[in-house]
Amino acid sequence: MDAVSAYQETSVTTQSKGRLIVLLYDGAIKFMKLAIRELDAGNYEAKGQYITRAQNIINELNAVLDTDAGGEIAVNLRNLYSFMNTRLCEANTKRDCQIIREVITLAEELNKGWKAIAG
What we know:
Elements: H1 3-13, H2 17-40, H3 44-63, H4 67-94, H5 97-118
């Protein structure tokens, strides 16, 4: 393992749960913005790859939800993640930047809340 990989692994494994969630949102937002850039450039294959990467992150956020401990908030988040994934599928097939922007707005709002919690 090279020094950069070791640093990245240590950086992730020593973060608080809240900070990790912020990092996940940051990644999803970054990939959605890259998808828009590639869509604008007419690079549909790359657009699809970036949307898939954003969806993978959203799926991970969904998978770690604890509906027993989180109650109604966790259930609402699960529904929101499902909606976001559905909209990204639609954006991918319709090649629609506006739908991607809609999902970015949702992710940024959620991320803002997590940043306040994580400090």
